[in-house]
Amino acid sequence: MTGSGGRGSGRSVPEAVNLSGQAALITGAGRGIGRAIAVALGDAGASVAICDKSEEEMATTAKAVRARGGIVLAVRADVSDLGDVERMVAEVEAEMGPVDLLVNSAGVHGPVAPLVESGPGEWWQTMEVNVRGLLYCSLAVLRGMVERGHGRIVNLASGLGFVASPRLSSYCVSEAALLRLTESLAVEARAYGVHAFAVVPDLVRTAVAEDGASSRAPGTAGDLHAPFERGDDVLPQRAAGLVFRIASGEADALSGRYINVPNPLAPTREGLAETVARAQEIIERDLFVLRGRE
C-alpha cells in the first residue's frame, strides 16, 4: 500500500465531504469509469484498492491516484475466478482493513453479433464476468459487512439491461440480471445495515459503447456513433461523482434501486438530490426497479 501525506490539488470531489477511514475496492479500475471512481474516492480520503486483469492499465490508475495524494493498493485478479477473488479480498483486507465500499465495475460486452451467429461459449462468458464476477466479489465482502453492521455495494449497470438490443443479447441479459441481483442483495442485507445500488450512467465512452459504435449496425448500439460525434456522451467523472456521493451515505434511502447519472445535455433528468428528496414516493410507487407491467 502506498500513498503520500496531504491530499493533492485538483480534487474531483467537494472539499466538505471526507471519506477518510473508509476502505474501497473497485473492480475493473484499469480505465474508464472504474479509473475515474478510484481517483474520486482517493480525492475524498478513502483508502482505495483497485483490481483489474491488465497490469499496465491498473498501474496507470494507481499512478493517477497517488499523483493526487491518494492511498492505493493494486491487486491483479480475474473476477470470474472464485479463488482469485478470495485471494484479492484477503490481500486488500490485510493491507487496508475491512472493505466498507465495493464498486463492481468490471465487465465485458460479449459478442457483438446476432444470437444465431454467436458461439455459446463466448456468449456465456459475458455471464461469467458480468454476473458471476459481481456475485463472487459481493459475497467475498458481504459476510464481513453483515457482521459489522454496515457497508455499501455499488454495481455499474447499463441502460441496455432494460431493452432487447439486436447483436448484443448476452450483454443485455447480463445487465438485466445485474439489476435484479442488486435489488435482491439490498432486500436481504437491509436489516444488517448494508446497502446496494445499481448506477446507470448515461452514454459514456466505455469499451462496450465504442465497440457498438464502430459496428454502425442500424437499430443496435451502432446508433451510438452519431451521439459520440456530436459530443453527447457523459464524462466518466460524472459517474464517479455519483458513486462518491453514494459512498458518503447520501443515497441510502434508495438502496436496491438503480440511479441514473445526470446528463447535463438532458435537463429534464433529475439529479441525485432531487431523487433522494422523493425517496418515499419512489418506494411507495415501486420506481427505479425492474418490474413487469400489465
Describe this structure in words.
The protein has 294 residues and is of the alpha/beta class. The protein has one domain (23-125, 142-285): 3-Layer(aba) Sandwich (Rossmann fold). Helix content is 44%, strand content 13%. The protein contains ten helices and seven strands. The protein has helices at residues 32-43, 55-67, 82-96, 120-148, 169-189, 207-215, 225-230, 236-247, 272-277, 279-285, and strands spanning 23-27, 47-52, 71-76, 101-104, 151-156, 194-200, 258-260. A seven-stranded parallel beta sheet has the order 3-2-1-4-5-6-7, sandwiched between helices. Helix 2 (55-67) links the parallel strand 2 and strand 3. The longest helix has 29 residues, at 120-148.
Concise overview:
The protein is α/β, with parallel strands linked by helices. The chain is 44% helix and 13% strand. The model is unreliable at 1-9 (pLDDT under 50).
CATH architecture: 3-Layer(aba) Sandwich
Alpha plus pi helix count? 10
Q: Estimate percent helicity.
A: 40-55%
Number of domains: 1
Principal-axis shape equals: globular
**Amino-to-carboxy terminus distance:** 53 Å
Q: How much of the residues is beta strand, in percent?
A: 5-15%
Helices and strands, with pairings:
Layout: E1 23-27, H1 32-43, E2 47-52, H2 55-67, E3 71-76, H3 82-96, E4 101-104, H4 120-148, E5 151-156, H5 169-189, E6 194-200, H6 207-215, H7 225-230, H8 236-247, E7 258-260, H9 272-277, H10 279-285
Parallel strand pairs: 1-2, 1-4, 2-3, 4-5, 5-6, 6-7
Helix pairs in contact: 1-2, 1-8, 3-4, 4-5
